[in-house]
Write a structure and sequence with these properties.
By secondary structure, this protein is α/β, with parallel strands linked by helices. Among the domains are: about 90 residues, Fumarate Reductase Iron-sulfur Protein, Chain B, domain 2, CATH 1.10.1060; about 120 residues, Rossmann fold. It is built from 24 helices and eight strands. It has a four-stranded parallel beta sheet. The longest helix has 18 residues. The protein is globular and about 65 Å long. The structure holds iron/sulfur cluster (2 copies). The site of one iron/sulfur cluster has 14 residues, from helix 2, helix 3 and helix 5.
């Protein structure tokens, strides 16, 4: 995998067309924080001209969001994402990982280890205490607002931001809850649902909306027991062996319980990882099955856009769509979520400046690089404040939490929703 990953950088001719697309270069204006600069560093790592524990190499690769906007901007066809993952694996082997990160990945590796964690998180969330504490912190000035701030904001305390992220996962007011009866049509096909870890633990309401909207569009959802986390967080952290173990477990679980069925996911980050299982397991005895698995994976917006979707009731809301990086840059799914939203009568799709730019979430980046993450988020919040939508729609749990936390801290009156939640609500209308 590593040699193939480095080969993705071969096409780089150092033209610099990708620089304006890079959110970290926009913040630091440091060439080493640009895609071109990082490619130079990664090539030096691959040729062993720099050791994996070189301080400058580690600093600038740690600061990369892995958003892959540089790939979309590159006219030469550079494949950046796998090289970054390979570089991070080398760095991890050389310098190790913080114990807290290893514990977190160990918990996420098995659903039974996560149960108590998500139960506790949902309990705390249901009290609305996190939201009240965050609003209090924002009001008292310990957490800065963004919308009208004339200067670069200081990042809030990590504890305040973590509370804001938890508050942002709330299912929302009653109008977003499950309907007593969802409209259904006779299913013409069946698909398996990929549940994920964070998505299943904190966004069960989005899974509910996904199952109902698919049912309305003639798709019956089959559960696939035995599935585990997709492995994206382990891959981003440079834990290659852990990522491969999770990929193997998912291939075996879906082949056993949903053989041959299309696999539908509502998380852009999971979808990008699941679609790359062929590369992750290329040298594994399961290689052929991993390729077949990856070919079966579809984002829920792709499935619904292909099927119409069926006509919905009106929803008079101003909605700004924010494209998750791992949907638009990694999976190249750009139009499907917009088609889904356009299928809702009276929904006004308002333009959002920089909608395809990273929000600063990037897996666990907001926890590892809080200051840079917050500065990247600030640009997104300013764009949202200017667009003034009722709802920001985005199809990734990390983005829902990051932007949701930011809008809460900034005091912006906007809801964060997955696009299928809007379609689900419109079907009930
Ligand atoms: S990655 Fe692409 S756009 Fe960026 S410098 Fe290299 S060739 Fe140019
Ligand atoms: S992945 Fe994103 S943050 Fe990293 S170099 Fe590319 S554009 Fe910049």
């Amino acid at each position: 995998m590593t040699a193939r990953a480095w080969a993705g950088l071969d096409a780089c001719v150092h033209c610099g067309f990708c620089l304006p697309a890079c959110p970290t270069y926009e913040v630091t204006a440091d060439e080493a924080d640009s895609p071109r600069g990082r490619i130079v560093l990664m090539r030096a790592l691959a040729k062993r001209e720099l050791p994996a524990d070189d301080a400058a190499l580690d600093l600038h690769l740690d600061r990369c969001l892995g958003c892959r906007a540089c790939e979309s901007a590159c006219p030469s066809g550079v494949i950046y994402g796998p090289a970054l993952e390979a570089a991070r694996a080398s760095i991890t082997r050389a310098r190790g990982q913080p114990a807290s990160l290893l514990v977190g990945l160990w918990i996420l590796a098995r659903p039974e280890r996560q149960r108590a964690l998500w139960l506790l998180a949902r309990l705390v969330r249901s009290t609305r205490l996190p939201e009240l504490l965050v609003r209090g912190a924002a009001w008292s000035g310990t957490a800065p607002g963004h919308g009208a701030a004339p200067r670069a904001p200081a990042a809030p305390a990590p504890s305040v931001f973590a509370l804001a992220m938890l508050a942002a996962t709330r299912p929302g007011s009653e109008r977003w809850q499950a309907p007593p009866e969802a409209p259904r049509v006779r299913p013409s096909t069946e698909m398996a649902l990929f549940r994920g870890c964070v998505m299943d633990g904190l966004f069960g309401h989005v899974h509910g909306a996904t199952i109902r909207t698919l049912a309305t569009n003639g798709v019956a959802v089959r559960e696939a027991p035995g599935q585990v986390c997709c492995g994206a967080l382990a891959a981003h952290a440079g834990e290659e062996a852990a990522a491969r173990a999770l990929a193997r477990a998912n291939v075996l679980a879906f082949d056993a319980t949903a053989p041959g069925l299309p696999i539908v996911t509502n998380s852009a980050g999971c979808g990008a990882m699941l679609k790359s299982y062929g590369e992750w397991l290329a040298d594994d005895p399961l290689a052929e099955r991993a390729h077949a698995f990856a070919a079966r994976v579809r984002d829920v917006s792709e499935v619904l856009a292909e099927r119409g979707p069926r006509r919905a009731g009106p929803l008079a809301l101003r909605v700004a769509y924010d494209a998750p990086c791992h949907l638009c840059h990694a999976q190249h799914v750009v139009e499907a979520p917009l088609a889904l939203l356009r299928a809702i009568p009276e929904l006004e799709l308002v333009p959002l400046e920089g909608s395809d730019r990273c929000c600063g979430s990037a897996g666990i980046y907001s926890l590892l690089q809080p200051h840079l993450s917050f500065e990247v988020l600030d640009a997104k919040l300013r764009a949202i404040a200017a667009a003034a939508p009722d709802v920001v729609a985005t199809g990734n749990p990390g983005c829902l939490m990051q932007i949701g936390a930011g809008t809460l801290l900034a005091g912006l009156d906007v809801e964060l929703r997955h696009p299928v939640e809007l379609l689900d609500r419109a079907y009930r209308g």
